[in-house]
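seq/struct pair 1
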Amino acid sequence: MNESQKDLQHKLFVLEYPQNEFFMIQDQNVRITKKSFSCQMVSGISDDLPKQIQKFYKKRHFLFKKFNEGILLDEESWYSVIPEVMSSHITNKLKISSPESDIVDGFCGSGGLAIQLAQLFKTVICIDIDPIKINNITKNLEVYQSIARVIQMNFLEYSHNNQDLILIMCPLWGGLNYLHQPFDLNSMKPPLQELLTKGLQMTDKIVLQLPKNIDLLQLVNIFKNVTGKLRLKVKPLEVEMMFINDLYINYVVTIPYMDEEFHLDQMQHYLDSDFAYWNPKLTTPPMLYFLNYPFILLLSKMGFSTLIACRIINTFIYPIITFLVLSKSFQNKQKALLFSILPTIYFYNFLFYTDTLSITLLSLSFQLLQSKYYFISSIFSLCSVMSRQTNILWIVYICIKDYLDQNQIKLQFKDPRLSITFHLNALFNMILSDLRTIIRNYIYHICILILFIVFLYKNGGVVLGDKDNHQLVFHAAQIMYFMPVLFIYFPINWNTLFQYTQLSIKRLLLSRNAKFTYLIILIICLEIVHDWTYIHPFILSDNRHYVFYIWRRILSKDIYRYILCFIYALIIVILSRILIIRKEQTFQLILLFIFTTLSLIFSPLIEPRYFSIPLLFFYQHCQFAEQTLKKQITVFTLINCIIVYVFCEVKFSCDFPQCRFMF
């Protein structure tokens, strides 16, 4: 035996051994393997459970995916049952090694492992001395439509005739207080030595569930003593360590956060084939769950929980697709990257929200429309609307924009000297002359619009589900809130921005026309803020959002609200000056502003993520210097790091299950 092998004998706990290696302990060949699982947790409490069990209740869908269909658990089972994904992993390994064996589960409990075994093995016998556990497992087998023989008796008194047998032993370890170091295997009731003696007399295929903090040396000694007394041939021991873990946000935020709770609940019902269920708190259509369904099934089989699987798809698949699509649409990878990491967009990639998918589908639809794949574009347009209803406005916009892009030379839209009336007249005449072509190209998108109108009529409004908290209101102040965001996110060199600002202020001081224009804009801003500011109850009560603090400390005070109107008006003047000097397409900018206004002014909530799609099309419309884009990418990357760090590491007390800062 070499020195490293000798050193291993002095280690106490199995956790301290290297994984996936064979080595000798007391002349016993031992292999330790490792398997990691991500735990799905959902918020909520049960009035029927004591306080120390509530944390297990949050893992209810990790323990049993069909928990809501009538799973029975007594208090002891909450912390002793083997979670479904781990049980499935064990069952699959046994099926590969011994596909025709009988199964005897000597301490079946409420059936976490036995249910999975019964789905793959022909003969499964479930034994437990506790009548409550027998009642639980009988009911739980019915929920999963699994067939097994259930016997109430002491396992030590059981005998089995078939020699081709796999014995499962998951004895209780001593309640919630087993975590003292190290765990004494002799403290088990019945003692491990007695269990192994009984088990090895029945079969040499034994699966034994033990705490992770066992003394491995003690386990080997007990095993050797039993095999020696029974005069059995010594076989290798395989110890598989099962860990439940996540990564960073998933590691820190282990239960669904805010709206994730509703989305995950709906996803879980779909995974359980309950397609008739609808969570009353959801307000958006079910495309998020339909598209994710096959991917989450696949990831679940790989050992990921539903929550982590949903977040993985949102974090990696959809943002990458969006970046690739926008790289082609923008014809500029840096601009596509910059949009992909906008702080208000990037943050939601880590959570199971609809925003990431909505942007991906709309981007695909727009790019396909530009490439003249009208029918395929309409499919993605429909999916986009079914992920977020307000995308119907942007479907109309991309069709109009696509038509204008094809005819911009004829209309001379790049000439800012031409009046808006001229453009409207020219556009109207062109539509009349091209009506047949328009219908042929956009007929599928027109059908989507008609279907949406029918939906509005049948549904009685845009919102599904929680209509009380998401009523449409006229909230024109949203445009005022959008302007500073557009100004901050506008990719322009800071020196150039400063020069434009100086130029705009200079014109205001020297030009009578500029003063008059600014005054009109200022009056409109003051009127909007005074008469059309809507205060949603969520903004006043939910202190997990940055907007809560902006409202509470600034916007809720009249003096600050009206002072900000001077800034809003100045931002509008500066941005207009920039776009005019750069000879951007005036008419298309006005069109974009109209659709941006329509998409925002009926939303009661102040949510920075609602600005994402307007920003997408502003980015698509304008051209920016490469050097400026690189600087903005650096700045946004730093901001994103700070936002994610604050979300994960800065916690505070509030009236909700979890309290973290977010947009």
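seq/struct pair 2
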Amino acid sequence: MLMMIGLILLFINPPLGIVLMVFAYLRQMGDEHTEEVEAQERYEAYKRKKEREELSRKEY
């Protein structure tokens, strides 16, 4: 959405359009990085849970 507005502004007011497009790009990259970090954290939590279950089974 921001990228489309940036493209329109690029023709009307080039500096503002460029700034908006860069902002949209950086925001998109940040969102993707956040998703990757959250997925990694969920995977590590899942691994720890499985390890705890395995240890509790071995105790019995």
